[in-house]
Structures are given as C-alpha cells and as structure tokens.
Amino acid sequence: MQRIVIFDMDGTLIDSATDITLSINYVRKHYYALSDLSEQFVVDAINATQRNLAFLFYETHSYDEQAKALFEEHYHTQCIQNVRAYSGIAETLVNLHSQGCILGVATNAPSRFAKRMLSHLNLSEYFTHIIGADNVEFPKPHPQMIEIHLENHGFIPTRDRAWMIGDNNKDMEAARNAKITGIFAAWGFSEHGNGDYCVTDPSELTAIILEEVCDAAS
Question: Which residue in 39, 85, 134, 142 has its CB near the most CB atoms, within 10 A?
C-alpha cells in the first residue's frame, strides 16, 4: 500500500502572507498609484470562495500583463525575505517521510516561486513533486494537480491511500473531485473549512494518516 500525502503550500506549509502583501502593495504603489492594503485584507481575499483578485488588489477587472510582470519580478526577491514554515511542519514532514509516506505539493502559486521558497526553508527535499498552477491547464479546485501526483506514483484506489491537506476550501473541493481524503489545515490562513478532517496543528496529521491506513488494512 502506498500512502500519498499532498500538501497545499501558502497557508498550509508556509506563512507567506507578509511577502505576498508587500509585493502586491509594491505594484499598487508603483503601477497603479494606490495606497497599501493590509495583510489581513490580502489573506481574506485569497481565501474568499467568490472573488476577482485583480479587482480586489488593483481595482481593475483583469490583470495587466505589465503589472503582472512587475509583481513577479518583485516577488522573486521578496518571497524569501519573511516566509516561514508553520510550527510543527518540518517535524511532521520528517515523521511522515520516515513512515514511508510519499509527499508532494499542489499549489496554485507558480512552481518557480514554490520551489524557491520551499528550498529556502530546507523543505523541498521531502517532496517528490512540487506542482504549481503553471504546470497544469486547470488549477484547484479542479483535481488535475492531484491526479498528476497520483498518476506519477501509479496510484490504485483499491490498494493505495491518498490525502490532500490545505487551508482553503478549494483544496478540499479538489480532494473531493479527485476522490481522496481532504484534511483542512486550520492553523493556516483560515480557521474554518469543510474537509473530511479539520486539524488545528500539523502534529495531528501523522496520527490521522497512520490510523486510516491501519483501518484500511484491518
């Protein structure tokens, strides 16, 4: 039996809110001549179920390519300035890895930023694949990212188990669409979600995953 554990990144593995906000505000100031947004506003906007981020962040109905390029240029440097792993994440990854779990990342962020941040935090070595929005046709809540992980490992539903861990209801919807277990990470950007499980600390993950495996084997 394979145990495949797939993590969202922002708000699940890492707290990137400060750097995201600083780069958004940089574009607001230098491209749109707008005042700064608060970090809480940015986090709430990212987690909103229905939203137009271009309008919420830049007061325009669609992203301007030059503004997008300016954000990406700024964020490439900014993204590793204040980012941190949530308390207990590193220990949980070590634990799951030592138990033979296959770990991966499925994030709606561009993969180059994901790999840069996770490498900076010495976390990338635990993941077999880090898949970002630029690697797929359809981002979460579409199940494509999850399906790529499962296909790469020859996942067989009747034999193997898989989990998607994330702080956003898009992660939980993606898990349902892929027909795997969703675990909502309430320690991240949002405290409330609708997964099969809701956990408040990363240390809870190992027990849930190993208990499910034992139940499936009995």
Answer: 85
- State mean pLDDT over 138-155: 97
89: nearest Cα among 128, 44, 115, 122: 122
Strand partners, 131: 106
Q: How many CA atoms lie within 13 A of 81 on its CB side?
A: 13
pLDDT value at 218 more than 50: no
Give the CA dihedral 2, 178, 168, 162, nearest 10 degrees.
Answer: -10
**What does DSSP assign to residue 210?**
H
What is the C-alpha to C-alpha distance for residues 100 and 112, in angstroms, rounded to an integer? Answer: 27
d(CA 204, CA 218): 22
Residue 21 DSSP label:
H
* pTM for the whole structure: 0.93
Classify 3-15+84-217 by CATH class: alpha beta
Report domain extents, the chain: 3-15+84-217, 17-78
Tell me how far apart the alpha carbons of residues 216 and 218 are, in angstroms, rounded to a whole number: 6
Of the pLDDT bands very low, low, confident and very high (cuts 50, 70, 90), residue 211 is confident
DSSP 8-state code for residue 201: S
The backbone region for 19, taken as left when phi is positive above 0, alpha when psi lies in -120 to 50, beta otherwise, is: alpha
Whole-Å CA distances, 135 to 68, 130, 138, 149 = 18, 9, 9, 12
